[in-house]
Amino acid sequence: MAKVKLAESKINKIKEICTSFGNKPGEAINVLHKVQGEFGYLPAEVQEVIAQELNVSVAQIYGIVTFYSFFTMTPKGEFPISVCMGTACYVRGAEKVLDEFKRELKIGVGETTPDGKFSLNCLRCVGACGLAPVVLIGEKVYGRLTPDGVKDILNEYRS
Amino acid sequence: MHLLVCGGTGCNASRSQEIAANLKSSLKDNGLENEVQVILTGCFGFCEKGPIVKIMPDNTFYTEVKPEDATEIIMEHVVKGRKVTRLLYTDPENKQHVADSKHMGFYKKQMRIALRNCGYIDPQNIEEYIGADGYAALAKCLGEMTPEQVINEIKLSGLRGRGGGGFPTGLKWEIASKNHADQKYVVCNADEGDPGAFMDRSILEGDPHSVLEAMTINGYAIGATIGVIYIRAEYPLAINRLLVAIDQAHEYGLLGKDILGSGFNFDIELRYGAGAFVCGEETALIHSMEGLRGEPTFKPPFPAQSGYNKKPTNVNNVETYANIPIIITKGADWFNKIGTEKSKGTKVFALAGQINNVGLIEVPMGITLREVVYEIGGGIKGGKEFKAVQTGGPSGGCLTTKHLDTPIDYDNLLASGSMMGSGGMVVMDETSCMVAIAKFYLEFTVEESCGKCSPCRIGNKRLHEILEKITKGNGTMEDLDNLRNLGRVIKDASLCGLGQTSPNPVLSTIENFYDEYVEHIKDKKCRAGVCKSLMQYVIDQEQCVGCTACARNCPVNAISGEKKMPHFINTELCIKCGACIEKCKFNAISIC
Amino acid sequence: MEKINIIIDNKPLQVEKGQTVLKAAHAHGIEIPTLCYYELDGVKLENRPGGCRICVVEIEGRKNLAPACATEVAEGMVIHTCSLRVVNARRTVLELILSDHPADCLICPKNGKCELQSLAQRLGVREIPYQGEQSTYRKDLSPAIIRDVDKCVMCRRCETVCNIWQTVGALSAVNRGFQAVVAPAFEQDLVKSPCTYCGQCIMACPVGALSEVDQTRQVITAISDPKKTVVVQTAPAVRVALGEEFGMEPGNIVTGQMAAALRRIGFDYVFDTDFAADLTIMEEGTELLTRISKFTQGDKNVKLPILTSCCPGWVNFFETNYSDMLDVPSTAKSPQQMFGAVAKNYLTTKLGIKREDMVVVSIMPCVAKKFESQRDEFKENGNPDVDYSLTTRELAELIRQFNIDFKTLPSEDFDNPLGESTGAGVIFGATGGVIEAATRTAYELFTGKKLEKVDFTELRGLEGVREATVDFNGTPIKIGIAHGLSNARQLLDQVRKGNSGFHAIEVMACPGGCIGGAGQPFHHGNFDIIRKRQEAIYREDAGKPIRKSHENPYIQALYKEWLGEPCGEISHHLLHTHYFDKSKHIEIEG
Q: Is B135 among the domain residues?
């Protein structure tokens, strides 16, 4: 007998979400969206519960999670930083801005700082190309960013 | 009088919500809140100069407005009737202020069909949409036309799919209508994934009802009762506006059971994408809608035969749909007079990159690249030299100076080794290295390839590796042959549209910028100064005054030298970050 | 069948409407190379993702090359299977696949049987112009199956077999792009997945990404140890397939040569699992009759139907997926384990040797048997009843290693007392065989009458799910048969719901039963091979002088001498087992 352990409140929440989608396997992506919205990420145990509720194999759920870049199995930082690497931002120097974030935070793309405060990711075009290069911290958009401005922005969140 | 405030994602990020709020409170302070309306609209397109505030009916166009400017706009323009000159757009040519947006270069050559309501109406108010002739097309279809007539009208209009492929829309509808089934579906592809393209998002944010209306018409035409909008989860504003619009349409009896008393039932639901570019391909999109990995399958069978839940499904993209209602109301004859012989109507492009007027534009098919770049786009930023335009996003190719006067339509773009794609248009100047650009796009494709078919999964990886090798200065002339052969095979043998187009950036840059590749390979030189491995930073001993600014700012301590004496860069340590160049006030540091 | 006209390689042809280009070409002797395509037509299993792009052809009027495996022919279609454009693309695609594939062919388990290798040969690839990064993964070593995913070519055959045909769900495509690979959830090892070790993924794998655990070395070591008495048993399905490994036609029965080869390799005693199959029938048949009679007498503690328990993949499947029904299957051990128990308890006494000094080797058409033999409940103080379980393919390797010219070997008999079997034991190798064998015995025990017609053809066949009612002298006995775990699932769901009218159900995990087992010579999707093995099984049965298990004189002697009676005290200890809940349980933390 293999055991999967998870807090009761989480199990109930996942079940509630699955039920709200009729426990249909075809709703897997909607369920994953909702659950990730709830917990911030999709750890293995959570996927096990979803698989059981939707009556599909957990391998299949994992296959979906790893296919879509929106889903993540690692918790994001308190302030998730997303650097837009769309073409418009790229030709206006997004890579240099990204490098500066890496240097300032001493982490790579897809990583979270040891204190859990910041995580760094790239994304493709938020559609604010007029403001290129663009960086999102949480929901907030920072436009026309230069490497020089990186430190100041981070300081807003550091205190 | 109306004050239109742009509420698109770009302007929103520059605090346009705050601007609207300040305008409102200032109006209230002046007791004008009942006379003058403040409307948060969709995107005006001129994102470069956002946030935008436009005052109707006199078309005054204020740019780069800050929340603090609100009081001045109200006090001066609204109360005293004097334009706030400092906020007006300045023509870069003659440095004159332009008050009326109709006279701005950016708008002069544009023709707004798909974007007809963006920037004019409040997208969250169905009555404004109805006021702008909205849902008249639906009423006409349900009341006066048979499904066959609707399809025929679309066929006659010559409208082709705006998502990239350019398949005739009417024909697509006809095929779906002829496949009989107990249930059919209409799907709107709003999984806009091209990095640098945001027309679909702008339409959904600025004019969501036009898409809902068109989908309902589509449902009526092919006999479907369920519509699904597959939208990127990264577009929260658009999702929100769609949800509001769907609710309103229900309230007004324009969605749901027995629409407009015609007996026709139609409903629309949303499905969220989760970050996979390949889901723009319709079979992959359908699998994603079914809760599976978004892998494409071989066509035929086409979705029109066996699509969502194995039922006949018609998939069109947002911009295609946005054209439908106006074609119905104004007629196919009106529409097919616009554009070129085989490409009718207009096309929305997202103009980005090293160009003065970044933004969203809609132009008639057949316009030249020169008009787009120099007249609408206002020329290259900083007066630099135009080098190339990448159209069609990662699946497209580069157009160069020799294509500047080619009329833009589906067929000409294909013939030039590029494609329409969804309408990304990234302008590049001499600071862009074409090998690096090809590599940038390949990096994207490698990341976004679903991995199902071997040419795309492994081939693009190999293309990228070869480009990496060339930009590192290790390329050989044989690599160019390999790039070419591999690129052609990947295009020819890949399973879906992603792989069938992914080598385009490589092939078209080799074709158009062959010399640049050869320079990288033979001379180990990158003329744009982008490929770091091929650059060296040098301090000119004559120019250097020994101010030590460079040494102090070097992150890796690669610069040494006595105070007031010329400095040196240790090229072994140098990471070519460029910090020293930025700090040097004496132009003593150069790249060679 | 409606015919349409097409042109392939300038030849006008009439082909069946609705066919794929691949099949239409094949029907006219034009062989288009394939890689990801896999079909077992006998059980309607098909994998054609159209992903490898090896079978691409040029179709006039189409912009891109089209995969022959997934493209339907159409009236007037003009197809080129070997134009310059096709040949170049096909070769380039193959070079790409090879550029992400390890070049350790010499020591690869699929060496010589690898479809990628033969493709490289056929297309004349001598170098790989596109060198670059190769995918690397950790090797996954389970007790039965080895996953060496570096070799995966993403043909998706294993995924299809595991999910569609077996509904096991151990594997899925994960990640995307260059990182895409087929793996269990969280890319963990198979042991942590719901894998049943049926091994059909190995059969499907065109390359060496999936293979069985090789134990030939351990067996040779045991044979070379003079202190050890090495006993071998051979399963029914092995004898109708082993010949294929030596170039013989499928369906050749090589029982005698096999016994001779095993003796030449150096096994001390060459016995037959068929003997243990007869023993299984005695135990399982008796259990069935007891259950039926108790059930008809209204005993509420008795469950019907009874399920066969010979197939280890199937046992793993119900322990994982039907853990709420562990009292439904028969408690009888499988023939392999019954043999092991008899050998290590009865035979050791008879030979006067210690348990530790006997090594029991089994030759099985199966990969899951490796797992079964290592189950804790089949060990005594850590010493397993069956020490090593080899596949048919591993036996063939041994025969080659010992330089035995298999084809010219004389036919020899098995040793006694565990070598004599009936036709009933033989048919265990084909789907429906176990239940037919049980019926032959149960009928006579139930009715007390002699069975005139031993061939129950209604129980034979290749349909995924079969049903039949056998008249036990006025009492109708309803029998269900399934091969393939997806089919078993159908029957089991009925049992769970309580609307199954069967008295007994036989389940085999592999297509066609053990003859299509994952330890058998590779058939590469040619189902005719399985059909021929099936015919051979029934031929062997028909040729046996005794065809009912309870008439096997050595079985009768075993009961008389040692066991007493079926399902008696000793049987209960040595020939029966119990099952474990292996399902996943979500538990509250803290």
A: yes
Q: What is the set of active-site residues of C?
A: 284, 287, 310, 330, 369, 372, 377, 514
Task: Tell me the Cα Rg of chain A.
Answer: 18
Number of domains in chain A: 2
Contact C362/C369 with Cβ under 8 angstroms?
Answer: yes
Contacts of B485 in chain C (CB under 8 A): 88, 92
B241 Cβ contact partners less than 8 Å away, ≥ 6 residues apart: B123, B124, B204, B205, B208
Record the pTM: 0.92
In a domain, B116, yes or no: no
Are B161 and B262 in the same domain? Answer: yes
Q: Of C42, A94, C7, C49, which is closest to residue B453 (Cα–Cα)?
A: C49
Determine whether the interchain pair A125/B196 forms a contact, defined as Cβ–Cβ distance below 8 Å. Answer: yes
The answer to whether B577 contacts A90, with C-beta atoms less than 8 Å apart, is: no
ipTM: 0.94
Chains that touch C (3 or more CB pairs under 8 A): A, B
Q: Could you give the residue ranges of the DSSP H alpha helices within B368-431?
A: 369-370, 410-415
CA distance C112 to chain B (A): 23
Instruction: Indicate if B317 and B354 belong to the same structural domain.
Output: no
- The count of other CB atoms within 10 Å of the CB of residue B523 is 11
Q: Do C175 and A48 touch (CB under 8 A)?
A: no
SS3 labels along C319-340 = HHHCHHHCCCECCECCHHHHHH
C468 with C492: CB under 8 angstroms?
no
Q: Does this chain's domain C3-97 share its CATH topology with C100-123+136-212?
A: no
Q: Which residue of C has its CA nearest to A3?
A: C585
Nearest chain A residue to B352 by CA distance is: A88
**In terms of domains, do A117 and A95 share one?**
yes
- Cα(C240)–Cα(A121) distance, integer angstroms: 59
Residues B243 and B258 occupy one common structural domain: yes
CATH tag, C100-123+136-212: 3.30.70.20
The domain tally of chain B equals: 5
- Residue-level pLDDT at B559: 92
* Exposed/middle/buried for residue B38 (C-beta within 10 Å: 0-12, 13-18, 19+): buried
User: Which of B449, B450, B454 is nearest residue C53 as measured by Cβ atoms?
Assistant: B454
C-alpha distances out from residue C474 to B566, C447, C583, Å: 112, 9, 41
Q: Do residues B247 and B321 both lie within one domain?
A: yes
φ, ψ (nearest 5 deg) of residue C17:
-65, 140
Out of C171, C583, C590, name the one closest to residue A59 (CB). C171
At position B4, the amino acid (one-letter code) is: L
A97 and A54 in a common domain: no
Q: Which of A1, A57, A67 sits opposite C585 (nearest CB)?
A: A1
Q: Both B494 and B466 in a single domain?
A: yes
Residue A144's domain comprises: 79-158
CATH number (domain holding residue A99): 3.40.30.10
| Cβ-based contacts of B436 with chain A (< 8 Å) | none
Q: Are residues A53 and A100 in the same domain?
A: no
Query: B462 and C130 in contact by Cβ < 8 A?
Result: yes
Q: pLDDT digit string (tens) for C268-285?
A: 999 999 999 999 999 999
Given a cut of 80, whether residue A126 has pLDDT beyond it is no
What span, in angstroms and rounded, lies between the C-alpha atoms of A50 and B278?
25
pLDDT digits (tens, 9 = 90+) for C460-519: 999 999 999 999 888 899 999 999 999 999 999 999 998 888 999 999 999 999 999 999
Assess whether pLDDT exceeds 70 at residue C590.
no
Task: Give the model confidence (pLDDT) of C154-173 as tens digits.
Answer: 999 999 999 999 999 999 99
Domain parsing of chain C, residue ranges: 3-97, 100-123+136-212, 217-574
Instruction: Say yes or no: domain C3-97 is CATH 3.10.20.740.
Output: yes
Fold of C217-574: Rossmann fold (3.40.50)
Q: Do residues A120 and A61 share a domain?
A: no
